[in-house]
Design the sequence.
């Protein structure tokens, strides 16, 4: 974004676009990882199936793999020549990679392990006898889950989603690999900080750094409050 | 009410809840209270779990009258939530996030409608003298109060059978005896089989009609609770001497 100040063309110190884009992408990524992540967490916590340990490892791997490696896999999986990428482009008319969709996907992959790990722990932390009691009272497995296990794991799951949001907000590597660094399209705050530093726009970098730090710390504080109350309630 | 034979619970089951332990039991529980008496680790709770459908036997048949709930040979295994067996757990397992009313109404059919369910819950809470807990949640209950709400919740499903797994164990002795005395008539009036697990002989005598003694996963003897010698007031099974042939002295 360029503004005219006097006769000089200068980049404004405060460009909120990357920050707003980050919040938008993080929100979408959190919604997607809530649906997929809580689903996977439920599957892993409640259903014994062959290959359960492998699914657990596959879902957790993004915590330890380098972002470039994850980005590579995503490019292979959803790139324009891949089956999924091709299908997506045919249906929606735009590719996944190097678009906002790609940025959301990248942020989701980074956030998903947090939701699955913490969500599973929260679900497994609910006294199994309560679920059994619900079943003897006539509840189907689905009703017992929705009315007893899920609400009692609620705080833990909300805490997991807050962490997921914070993680999505800060993603750099996967986003860069899959969505690129396109200003106004996929340039999130963490990418914009890098660019600002490269271009010696220290003040712009500092503002975004402080914004991201504030949001992250506020979220962590909230998560601590939530989980402390969750363990009190037990 | 159907004939007594149609309301008798037939239990024949073999289970292996843990690697080193095999449970092999067979007994009938007609309407009235059948006490499952035995030391800890005898397989009492596992037997209840099999009746409720929470544990699947390796072999055997569990039926109410002629209706099988589980039959290994006929491959019948009715799901837990379709058996309508009230189960009061040792820990009571009240839902901590629901009010007394919501706990009691949980097992009532949705077709009853909201108001009817609330009215029925209020009636049951009143009958068990805990009407004041309708709007309070379980973490605020005393031991005896939690007990009564758990019983109200179990009775609310209009059960075909009632299973009680040492539901009074958390209470002190005085309260336990008072509750047992109060409960006796309520359970008899239901006209369904009640299987009551305990290792307290006084509870067994006060509440039960028939007696099934379990030890080491086997039925040691069948009889009447009167056969259980009075013994010291609160002596539990673990302190009760057994004759070599398994009869209680």
Sequence:
């Amino acid at each position: 974004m360029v503004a005219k100040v006097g006769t000089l063309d200068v980049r404004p110190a405060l460009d909120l676009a990357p920050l707003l884009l980050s919040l938008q992408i993080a929100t979408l990524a959190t919604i997607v990882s809530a649906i997929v992540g809580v689903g996977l967490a439920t599957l892993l916590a409640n259903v014994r199936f062959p290959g359960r340990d492998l699914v657990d490892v596959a879902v957790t791997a993004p915590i330890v793999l380098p972002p470039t490696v994850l980005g590579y896999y995503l490019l292979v999986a959803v790139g324009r020549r891949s089956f999924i990428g091709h299908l997506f482009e045919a249906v929606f008319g735009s590719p996944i990679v190097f678009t906002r969709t790609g940025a959301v996907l990248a942020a989701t992959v980074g956030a998903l392990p947090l939701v699955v790990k913490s969500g599973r722990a929260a679900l497994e932390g609910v006294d199994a006898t309560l679920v059994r009691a619900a079943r003897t009272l006539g509840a189907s497995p689905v009703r017992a889950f929705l009315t007893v296990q899920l609400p009692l794991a609620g705080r833990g799951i909300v805490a997991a989603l807050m962490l997921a949001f914070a993680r999505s907000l800060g993603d750099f590597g996967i986003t860069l690999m899959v969505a690129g660094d396109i200003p106004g399209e996929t340039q999130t705050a963490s990418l914009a900080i890098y660019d600002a530093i490269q271009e010696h726009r220290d003040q712009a970098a500092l503002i975004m750094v402080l914004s991201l730090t504030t949001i992250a710390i506020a979220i962590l504080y909230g998560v601590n409050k939530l989980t402390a109350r969750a363990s009190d309630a037990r | 009410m159907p004939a007594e034979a149609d309301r008798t619970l037939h239990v024949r089951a073999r289970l292996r809840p843990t690697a080193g332990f095999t449970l092999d039991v067979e007994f009938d529980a007609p309407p009235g209270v059948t006490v499952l008496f035995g030391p800890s680790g005898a397989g009492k709770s596992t037997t209840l779990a099999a009746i409720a459908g929470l544990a699947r036997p390796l072999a055997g048949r569990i039926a109410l009258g002629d209706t099988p709930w589980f039959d290994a040979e006929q491959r019948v295994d009715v799901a837990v939530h379709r058996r309508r067996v009230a189960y009061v757990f040792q820990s009571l397992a009240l839902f901590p996030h629901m009010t007394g009313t919501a706990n009691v109404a949980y097992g009532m059919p949705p077709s009853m409608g909201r108001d009817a369910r609330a009215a029925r819950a209020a009636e049951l809470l009143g009958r068990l003298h805990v009407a004041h807990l309708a709007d309070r949640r379980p973490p605020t209950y005393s031991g005896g109060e939690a007990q009564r709400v758990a019983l109200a919740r179990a009775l609310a499903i209009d059960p075909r059978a009632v299973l009680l797994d040492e539901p009074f164990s958390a209470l002190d002795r005085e309260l336990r005896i008072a509750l047992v005395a109060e409960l006796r008539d309520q359970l008899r009036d239901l006209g369904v089989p009640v299987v009551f697990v305990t290792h307290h002989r006084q509870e067994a005598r006060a509440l039960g009609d028939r007696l099934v003694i379990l030890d080491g996963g086997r039925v040691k003897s069948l009889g009447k609770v009167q056969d259980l010698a009075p013994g010291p007031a609160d002596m539990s099974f673990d302190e009760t001497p057994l004759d070599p042939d398994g009869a209680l002295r």
In short: Confidence is low (pLDDT under 50) at residues 1-10 of chain A. The interface with chain B takes residues 127, 129-130, 132-141, 144, 147-148, 151-152, 233 of chain A (CB under 8 Å). Residues 16-233 of chain A form a domain with the MetI-like fold fold (CATH 1.10.3720.10). Residues 202-233 of chain A form the longest helix (32 residues).
